[in-house]
Amino acid sequence: MKTQDKRITAEFLAAQAAGSCRIEGLKVAPEEEERMRDIISGKVDAEEDIQKIVDAFKVQNTKTKE
User: In terms of pTM, does the model score above 0.90?
Assistant: First the structure.
């Protein structure tokens, strides 16, 4: 991630996002925070993660309707 302010790193942004989730009562595991960092830094393509979440939701939704 390129930014003019060297203090705003992918690690910083991931920590901020995870902290916001925790404030709202959501549990964020260290591995999940690391994944956020990798997505923010561009090391990981978020599309794959998004598709996994959508697929899991569809499976969960199908089971609830049965």
Answer: no
